Amino acid sequence: MATESLTLGKALNAGLRRALDRDPKVVIMGEDVGKLGGVFRITDGLQKDFGEDRVIDTPLAESGIIGTAVGLALRGYRPVCEIQFDGFVYPAYDQIVSQVAKMHYRSRGMVRLPIVIRIPFGGGIGAVEHHSESPEAYFAHTPGLKVVTCSNPSDGYTMIQQAIASDDPIVFLEPKRRYWEKGEVDAEAEAYPLHSARVARPGTDVTVVAYGPMVRTALDAATAAAEDGRELEVIDLRSLSPLDLGPVHESVRRTGRCVVVHEAPSNVGLGAEIAARVTEECFYSLESPVLRVTGFDTPYPAARVEEEYLPDLDRVLDAVDRTYGW
Amino acid sequence: MARDDDTLVQLLTPDGERVDRAVGPDGVEYSVDLTDAEYRGFYRDLVTVRRLDAEATALQRQGELGIWASLLGQEAAQVGSGRALRPQDMVFPTYREHGVLYCRGIDPIMPLSLFRGVDQGAWDPIETRCGMYTIVIGAQTLHATGYAMGIAMDGKVGGDDGEAAIAYFGDGATSQGDVNEAFIWSAVYTAPVVFFCQNNQYAISEPIERQTRVPLYQRAAGFGFPGVRVDGNDVLASYAVTRHALDHARSGQGPTLIEAYTYRMGAHTTSDDPSRYRPPAEAEAWRSRDPIARLAAFLGRQQIADETFFAEVDEQARTEAVRLRERVLTMPDPAPDSIFDNVYPHGSPLVDGERERFNAYRKSFEGSAH
Ligand SMILES: Cc1ncc(C[n+]2csc(CCOP(=O)(O)OP(=O)(O)O)c2C)c(N)n1
């Protein structure tokens, strides 16, 4: 396959398949990942082709999924764990932050846990509670973990392979409402470095920083803004820990304005971190404060009102307007 | 206190009488056939780990260790199970398994550096085949299970040269979700793992009645694998039962839960005050079941060992303890910027940047009065 148009879901599937193919130590584990192919079918067909020992249907217990992955990693395997939905990662939270994140440090580097924890995250699919959350800040706050998220099929395909090949434990967030969106995937193209932000659309007037599901929203806002003569520069962070803010700083020094967009609540969220760092680095270039467009500081609401909760094109444009008010 | 005593596998009575064979609640007949040298070896281990443990407690009292979790009273469970391990087996301990570590050939300074705060207990888990101490109760039972799944996936089960994993935990840990998840996982995947629970009757202050209404070994039945209760103060029985469970695992027959019925003679840790929650008579009653005294009685009666031997073992243990003390006192503190080491295998710009700023800040004090 050279270049092909794939949905994000299919691109992730292809990336997982390639990783299983390349390294016999890679195993996929999670609830329903085998015969069913996962509730989002991201692991579709993999058990059929690689067997039940490589694509493991686990009992229904999240701490067990991550805790046994630690043992498998100690044994030389590279487990890729699927957590079915964002809201169900919390039973495994202890294993992730207290065990997975710390063993390399505690062992003075003697232990490596190349574990990938895949989590479909974010809202917008009309689900019931616990199926639409954005838990990234919990993990990004934890030293020893790395946190990444893809926003398009091409990144989905390469980033999942890079994450699996990495010696770091990685929380890999998949924007579930973008699973069905298509894009070009070039299987032969050289992969972009995993922990780097990327300019998704160049512009001169306002820097819009987004990641995961909000990249599409930011790009749509940029298209709309262009009709009004404003050129937004959209940056897809891709890596949430570590953050690659170099391209953001560089951009803000040119534009003088910055808006950060995410679905998670604003309080102590990644937007706060980014705003603080951009302020510190670009203080003399800023024409206005760094603004955030985020979910509200409430639990994720019922599906019939989620459109109110989720940042959309209009809220991004409104924030862009406000940066001109100072 | 010790209920269900008839279910207890015992090969050496508290008076030091050798029991030829004992049938466990799992229906298995247990026995041991050791040489005199092996019996003496067990005794030497018991005395040594108790002596080193006492030294660590003393070092803590003198302010040289931040805290210490003593194994006093649990030597037989640890030495018996520890000596049953083969080199290829993998151990997943909690924070009190100094005796198991000793049997594993791990330098006794290793756990002390953890409790002194010099490092976080960083012996090499892969090379020593012994995981680091686990403080979060029960977490390591899942690690052991996953590791054992890996053993099975590697095809290293089925024969005598097969491998097995063993997880150590306490009675309190059996209430944790992780331990129950480990039971489920190991049963479902027939993982070659042994769950070695030292029921020392207390989880800090909480008695076993606060954790369970049924004897712990009986829990295994509900998960679909054998459970055995062994006299944890009997080194021979602990050895026999663990050896059997490990063989059972390595031959591909799956997990076993061993409940080593024992008693924590000291405090939970040096920060604990057991007089607030334990009647003094209780510990007194358990003193008569002391693991070392009973083996000594047997060795003496059978003329396997004499006073010269006992004195020599004491002296050797004392020498090891003195050496350990000296090493603790001369243990250097780590370099300040070592806090930035090993957060990630290949570094991180965030951490690297912080290390630079930290060192620059520290350097700014050079030559000043501080
Ligand atoms: C998850 C968790 N909760 C609480 C503690 C605090 N804590 C440390 S040891 C302990 C008691 C453990 O008892 P048990 O499992 O019986 O082991 P023992 O110390 O008796 O060997 C507790 C509550 C902890 N370390 N981890």
UniProtKB/TrEMBL annotation, chain A:
The lineage of its organism: Bacteria, Bacillati, Actinomycetota, Actinomycetes, Micromonosporales. SMART domains: Transket_pyr (SM00861). InterPro entries: THDP-binding, Transketo_C/PFOR_II, Transketolase-like_Pyr-bd, Transketolase_C. GO terms for molecular function: magnesium ion binding; pyruvate dehydrogenase (acetyl-transferring) activity. Its cofactor is thiamine diphosphate. Its EC number is 1.2.4.1. Pfam families: Transket_pyr (PF02779), Transketolase_C (PF02780). Signal peptide: none annotated. Keywords: Oxidoreductase, Pyruvate, Thiamine pyrophosphate. It comes from the Bacteria. This is Pyruvate dehydrogenase E1 component beta subunit. Residues 6-181 form the Transketolase-like pyrimidine-binding domain. The keyword Oxidoreductase applies. It comes from Catenuloplanes indicus. It is an enzyme of class 1 (oxidoreductase).
From TrEMBL, chain B:
Residues 47-320 form the Dehydrogenase E1 component domain. Pfam families: E1_dh. InterPro entries: Alpha-ketoacid_DH_E1_comp (IPR050771), DH_E1 (IPR001017), PdhA/BkdA (IPR017596), THDP-binding (IPR029061). Its cofactor is thiamine diphosphate. It is an enzyme of class 1 (oxidoreductase). Its EC number is 1.2.4.1. GO terms for molecular function: magnesium ion binding; pyruvate dehydrogenase (acetyl-transferring) activity. PANTHER family: 2-OXOISOVALERATE DEHYDROGENASE SUBUNIT ALPHA, MITOCHONDRIAL (PTHR43380:SF1). NCBIfam families: PDH_E1_alph_x. This is Pyruvate dehydrogenase E1 component alpha subunit. It comes from Catenuloplanes indicus.
